[in-house]
Write a structure and sequence with these properties.
The protein is an alpha+beta fold and about 200 residues long. It folds into three domains: about 50 residues, no CATH class; about 50 residues, no CATH class; about 80 residues, no CATH class. The chain contains five helices and eight strands. The protein has a four-stranded antiparallel sheet, with no helix packed on it. Strands 1-2 form a two-stranded antiparallel ribbon. The chain starts with 17 loop residues before the first strand and ends with a helix. The relative contact order is 0.06.
Amino acid sequence: MINLTLECEVCFHKGGDVHEQPTHDRHLGDTTKYLCDDGSCLLRTSGGLPVFEEVRLGKDIGRKDNPSASYIWHSCIDCGKERWVRYILHKETPERVRCYPCGIVYRNKNTLLKGENHPNYKGDNASPGGGGQRARRLYKENKPCELCGNVKAERYHKDSNTLNNESCNVVFLCRRCHMKEDGRLLRFIERSRGKRLKRQEGD
């Protein structure tokens, strides 16, 4: 006698507890499928509990706030809990890989990480603004301008590379001296002078 092992069409479990059962498919109507006997896979096929990575529209899952958006039934990478997540069609990935509680724990944990230990650390690929933020974190103590003595000073990079935050490259200058050193003050004066001449010519 041939011993046939049936495979569930939903969870792909193989065993003697898989049998042909009548069900209702949203697209095919009344039909039969090979399903597990515990009832969970039957619930999935009847429009209740969705199949893992199944994609539905918001209106089909009761999302009145965004009925035309796509959602995917996906599991949290930390706790494994399955839930509906916004689906990014052009990337073919879920919008969030963590559920809300696990996301809070993950963010709180990362707030304690600094520099190279942080998962979002970009190294030398950081933007000029990001380099300036690093300088403000490294040199927290405010010092007066090294040229004019103004107490309101900011961090200036001598080589104009904000990612180079070596102590020999960072000095404290006031806004005016800072603009004078990097050429912005001269460009500002020339631009203002040009606008004034154009107004005079127009008169």
